[in-house]
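Session log. Operator J.P. requested a structure for one protein chain; no other inputs attached. Running the standard single-chain path with token output.
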Amino acid sequence: MTHTLPLHAGWQFKARAPQTPLNDDFAADSDWAAASVPGTVHQDLLATGRIPDPNVGLNELDVQWVGETDWLYQLEFDAPSMESGEQADLCFDGLDTFAKVWLNGELILESENMFVPRRVSVAGQLREGSNELRVLFSSALLRGQGIEAELGKRQLWNGDSSRLYVRKAQYHYGWDWGPVLMTAGLWRGVRLEVYAARLDELACPVSVSDDFKRAEFPVSVDVKGKIAGNVVLELLGPDGAVVASETRPAAGSVAHTFSVENPALWWPAGHGEQPLYTVRAGLEDGTSSELRVGVRSIRLIQEPVADEPGSSFFFEVNGMPIFCGGANWIPDDNFLPRISPERYRTRLTQARDANMVMIRVWGGGIYEDDVFYDVCDELGLLVWQDFMFACGMYPAHTEFQASIREEAEVAVRRLRHHASLALWCGNNEDYQIANSVGAYGPGGDESKFDALSTYEELLPEVCSRLNPATPYWPGSAFGGPNSTDQEIGDRHTWDVWHGAMAPYQDYPKYEGRFVAEFGMQSLPSLALLESVVAPEERFPASRTLEHHNKAGDGPRRLNVYIGDTVPIPADLPGYVYASQLMQAEALDSAYRGWRRRWGRDGKRAVSGALVWQLNDCWPVTSWAIIDSSGQPKPAYYAIKGALKPVSVGVTVTGKGAEVWAVNGTTEVQTVTLDLRALTLEGKELSAETRELKLAANEVTELGIFAAEHDAASTIVAATLNQDGSVIAREVRWPEPFKYLTLPDPGLKVEVTGPNALSLSVTRPAKGVWLESAPETVWDDNMLDLLPGETRVVRTQKLSPSNLTARWLGAEETVRVGEFERA
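Structure written below.
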């Protein structure tokens, strides 16, 4: 039986006194304070009041010394008694980053990679009774700068250039959405394991037959140590019942393949259920290990696109092509141990509830905690997993690549069993930066692109050896000779916002076969800003507000897009609303325009759109659609509508309003299409109703409507109805909105129950944004309302007495007040 002693309580930490000999510094009685494990130095300094909260005001600037300091940790613990022949291992799941560890005065470990857990055999070093652990964390910033001074400065985007030599979460160095907070500490768990034998490397690369009628579960596990007895291998069904078991002698590597007829298939969200089987290995002494796995096939399809140059880039799950609407994921906090399992589940559930099917784990963060992938398995969220390289010309010297290989093998072994895992990707934007400096692409000197061997040799070798069933892609963006190619591979569409700052209405022009990044900034919620910005700084363009926008010239670019869309408000509440309305409109244009190009079999011109980004790590003006307090922005609801299983789209051209519908389901859908054209005052100019059959997993073009009306003053609305209910809608208003004179809409809101509101207007209303309390959850928001219809919005934790609304043209937020309960 493995006896595990968690080593999380009783730690102390202090800043290293550089002029004092190390042993004397450890032995000194002064300056020590309680340390949290798992934790970071910053968290403990916050807890003891030694630093201000870096999320507040300009405090980030006052805590930079933390990252330039070496830190000491120590712990006294009593080791459990050991039987003859037993082993003892100290296990460090996360050391951030340059660490040396001593046990009872003996150096047992040196680590320089934050992403690699460490296991050290210590049976010979443990003492009866009290034992002492000491850890020295050297400043990652200073160590990295020392390596850089020796090996040379390399080109990058974002952060201190020394980060390229350091295997630490790259966003800790600062990004164009995040602060510079150079953490150190025992960021994941620490434990002592005592055992005669333990189980290691439990694996089960599930496969399924081409007709999906038979699945094979090849289970293997290594037995470390010596034990007399057997290993019991078990396969449990999604209901928890044992499907099959096998008993083998407990020696070395043990393997057996279970076969299941008519297995329950795992599907992405919205396309089916997510049944998970459990694979378990157990020793007779009670030691056990288990994995949850799903039965599914996944392929990355690159094939000709009918009547177009280039090739497709779509994911096929269980033989079904899937349009992958989704989002990019960054670490949900600057201090990683603060991200609880509940927080992971909440954030990912928000993504699933917005009709997303894919999350890309971006390469400047971390390989996320196990619970992240467990929840993705349960929710049906496909995971595009980057390796941790981002926006830089990384080195490839022997020692660095050895560390990378170890890191990659650990990550692949840990994550390969997850049903949600859809793709391994070599890096984020490293081909783009190489392209920009003449080290890649037409005429480029690839000898200057050292990391090419990492992305095209080392990483694919690790993936093909350890996880051959999951596709590997060298980088994002990657495809043709130019990283911005629109006809091959995946693309990052930053022609809007970055680059030429194209109008967001032009998003559909800047398509790619798979758009893995695109985005538009907005402010976070007013409540979040007020929690971190002093009252005297709560105005647009204040020093504090601009400090909480890390995108270089972000405030200027944001003002351009707001000013192109609506008049720029002078007050902070109005500025928040204007930025969020503009972001929602931009992302709606992108998702609907690109999803229109999903086409049909043989013509999958655009097959995915992953917004940059889902979440934030601190209170900031950024491209996130959910702010760091967990509040969805209006763009969240725009995306939710655009990604409905069955959706409708409208775009206004010189010829009229082009209308189309997307059926993302596997069944033909019979729907009623209602089309309306109205004036800004609400007068109906024309209307049309059609009965339609929408082919399965296809886009259906529905023609041109309202061609005879003046586009500069006409609202065009399309709804799809099924069985008496509206299942999709889209309303297109004349643009830019700043030119419009909008009458008071005569908004009426009724609280029709503890979890529902009813809304109606006498004149058209654009962008009705409802707020109640921070904990209120809305099923829809940022609404376009038209006369003659009643919209029901369902809620959780509604606070009717605090209910407010704002819409385009309103001078301020309106307190709705107490309403009659219907």
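Operator note: DSSP finds 14 helices and 47 strands in the chain.
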